[in-house]
Amino acid sequence: MTGISWLDSGIHVFNYFILVFAVFVMVSYLILAIISAYSLKSYLKKNRYLNYGALLALPNIPKVSLIAPAYNEGNTIKENVQSLLSINYNNFDVIVVNDGSKDHSVAILMDAFELKKSDMVYHPHVPTKAVRGIYTSSNPSYSKLIVVDKENGGKADALNTGINVSGNPYIVCIDVDCIMDKDVLLKLVKPFMEQSSTRTIATGGVVRIANSCVIKAGKLIKVNATNYWLARIQVLEYLRAFLFGRMAWAKMDGLLIISGAFGMFDREIVIKAGGYNTKTVGEDMELVVRMRRYMIDHKQNYAVQYIPDPLCWTEAPESYKILRKQRSRWTRGTFETLWIHRKMFFNPKYKILGMLSYPYWLFYEYCAPLIEFTGLLITLILVFLGIISWVFFFLFLIMVYAYAVMFSMMAIYAEESTFKRYATFRDLWKLVFIALLEPIIFHPFTVYAALVGNWEKIRGNTGWGDMTRRGFNKAPAK
Amino acid sequence: MNTELQDHEYLVYSTVILILALFTTSIIFLLLTLIKRARKIKKNKKRSAFQEFIDSTLFSMLFDNSTPPEVLARFKYFMTTSVLFKKVAIKSIVALHNNYSGNYRTKLENFYVQSGLVHYSLNKIRSRRWAEVVEGLRDLSNLKYDPAFDQIASLIQYPNEFVRKEAFLGVIRLRGLGELIKREDLPWYLDDWAQSNILLTLKTLQLGAPEKMEILLSSSNPSMVLMGARLIEHFQYTHQAPALQHALGQARDLKLQIELKDIILRLNPYPGSAL
Question: Is residue B144 part of a domain?
């Protein structure tokens, strides 16, 4: 090596640290995949013969509010709301919260759904920005629709407003531009109906990528693997995350996040826990962690459930610029949530959450990009000093690549064995091809975006950033 | 550098082996995916062909005066060679059974027995795999095979909850809501999911109201009390309101109290007025 003993020792220690870290990451992913496979198999077996329509026979099926915050969604809001109103369920209402949009969202809604100002009284169980007005439809066909117009306060504030307006025991928080399966509420409500002594406080669902899928009148008609590389890589990424990661954490009762685009909650517990935190951009994860802490702190039996069926479809960013903003925000959100709940770190009071989920998220989700970047810097120093072992460098590089490809192939196999939504051989080959490229072109970018997220956090950036989307069934912007 | 590599020769070899193993595993998963898809496509084609053949044959039996022995002769070869054929045949019979009534239903029920498909279902309920048991007892109860009643009823005590619920539903399908009354003190919790299935069954099969429905309101099992209240609401037995009020007074379970209050309110939205 260099002959300088302290430097040689430092390099040795770092090498072994990186090796142990990498082995732990790889092994943990495999363990999670195995748990998920077992859990998925069991779920599908149990749900194979279920007729979800039977729930509609129940006169007092739980009442649910779908809360959809909207900010400058004027171009698509009418179709999106129509789609939400057509969901297959008896007792539900749709609460669209206009979060101080600068476009004509409210005017479009008023015109399309014959809205008139309601005399409904607003009770701020959770504090929010001022509400300008609550509107309901004069047309009985739209009796399920409530539109709330409020001052801009961000997504979390808009969701809190919806929670305050809702009079139902369960709320489903969604992104207004998501495409929902028509049976989405029937499937989400089932875990709440099966509860006995253990209270189900939340149910999370799978979010899938809808880019290039055929969507008509707010309904998903045909699933395609998109031609846009960046979006297609995210298809694979979401498959891995939702089929393997979250399914396993849910099985171990260690799920820390329910996607902000799609989750169902027990409204009473949400309010008792304080609603969505408006001071973080990771409000979805933060709420789940806080609700779980609330239940543990108050010594109440509870469960957080997870439904692996693909029920919610969203549009993934197709440009690196938008993707960078999204991933940067995710990094900041993760850091903020982990910081707020740092008391849980290796705290046995919180059982698996404190002893496993939290440390995992800290080391393998939040710190991993930082460690990878440090590894890159050290490698450059070693190259500069001329003491790098190129044989080992390339061997380990190929090993990591091979592992990433293998894991993606496992995810594709899991999808094929379960939901089979990518029906053609062409789509299958598209996914396989992108699995070979993903470790080279996508992963380094996510590390970069995470670093940007940390930098933005240090600089005090608390915003969401402009998340412009192309919209379904539209040509890409040139 | 070379000395360093020689020192760590084992590490180089083990890393190379690991890389090869990872790539091999990737290829295996890819092949498994392709095989699975190819098999699925083949199976679907076969299923479609069977479906078309079975539907046309059953239709001819129902509407064109083909006799069951003639249909059986046409089925014979596939019945002995393909399990998939039996599955599709039972599914078709159940679907037609749900869509038609009267004499057509009876014809289908008889054919289910004469064709020997009933033995396939009976074997299933003896399976060790609970999913198969559920499938078997669902087919038997849907197609009204009453001789299997005792076997189905015994499955209400089965260790697996899915089998228990399906068996409970099965006895109701076979002999009506009276079976529910006979099991007023069910030893397990009949959750909302199972109750919604019972309500759907009684709507689709247009099952009549059982005698002494109010017995359920005095059950020691709160879920059966709720089921009783839901049945009273379904049949709009407003004269049972005092019994419901009494059950509410006796209820210790919070969920039950809330549900009973709601049902009482729905049965009589104007409290104080005569029911």
Answer: yes
The answer to whether position A274 is within a domain reads yes
In a domain, B34, yes or no: no
Contact A59 B162 (CB under 8 A): no
Give the distance from residue B111's alpha carbon to the nearest chain A alpha carbon, in angstroms.
24
User: A102 touching B, CB under 8 A?
Assistant: no
- Pairing assessment for the beta strands A131-137 and A145-150 based on DSSP bridges: antiparallel
Q: Between β-strands A92-99 and A64-70, what pairing exists: parallel, antiparallel or unpaired?
A: parallel
Instruction: Name the residue among A53, A389, A412 with its Cβ closest to that of B1.
Output: A389
For residue B171, what are the domain limits?
A: 69-92+109-175
- Give alpha helix (H) positions in A94-170: 105-112, 155-165
CB neighbour class for B215 (10 Å; exposed up to 12, middle 13-18, buried from 19): middle
How far is the alpha carbon of B98 from chain A, nearest alpha carbon, in Å? 14
Of B44, B24, B37, give the one whose Cα is nearest residue A428.
Answer: B37
A63 touches chain B (CB under 8 A): no
Is pLDDT of A441 > 80?
yes
Q: Is the pLDDT of residue B138 over 50?
A: yes
Q: Nearest residue on chain B to A195, judged by CA atoms?
A: B191
pLDDT over threshold 70, residue B144: yes
CA distances from A17 to A12, A14, A24, A363, A381 (A): 9, 5, 11, 13, 17
Taking the Cβ of residue A432 and every Cβ of chain B, the question of whether any pair is shorter than 8 Å is answered with yes
Position B112 scores a pLDDT of 95
Give, to the nearest 10 degrees, the angle between helix A425-441 and helix A390-417. 150
Please report the sign of the dihedral spanned by the C-alpha atoms of residue A330, residue A335, residue A341, residue A345: positive
* A388 domain-assigned: yes
Percent of chain A with pLDDT over 70: 96
As for how many domains chain B has, the answer is: 1
Compute the mean pLDDT over every residue in chain A, rounded to the nearest whole number.
91
Longest dimension (CA), chain A: 84
pLDDT one-digit tens code per residue, B194-205: 899 999 999 988
Using a pLDDT cut of 90, give the percent of chain A over it: 75
Nearest to A54 among B26, B166, B196 (CB): B196
Q: Minimal Cα–Cα distance from A19 to chain B, Å?
A: 12
Considering CB atoms only, which of A196, A396, A406 is closest to B26?
A406
Residue of A nearest to B258 (CA): A60
Give the mutation candidate from B8, B26, B262 for the A interface (greatest A CB count, under 10 A).
B26
Q: Residue A188 sits in which domain range? A: 1-49+178-472
Interchain contact A389–B (C-beta under 8 A): yes
Q: Residue A35: inside a domain, yes or no? A: yes
A417 domain residue, yes or no: yes
Helix (H, G, I), strand (E, B) or coil at A165: helix
Enclosing H/E stretch for A93: strand A92-99
The verdict on residue B157 lying in a domain is yes
Would you tell me how many other CB atoms lie within 10 Å of the CB of residue A202?
A: 25
B4 touches chain A (CB under 8 A): yes
Instruction: Give the separation between CA B207 and CA B229, rounded to whole angstroms.
Output: 17
pLDDT band at B255 (very low <50, low <70, confident <90, very high): confident
Which chain B residue lies closest to A398 (C-alpha atoms)? B19
Give A37-71 pLDDT, tens digit per residue: 999 999 998 888 788 888 888 877 889 999 999 99
Of B40, B195, B266, the CB nearest to A58: B195
**Within-domain flag for B262:** no
CA distance A50 to A43: 11
Please list the alpha-helical segments (H only) found in A364-467: 367-385, 390-417, 425-441, 443-458
CB A407 within 8 A of CB A240: yes
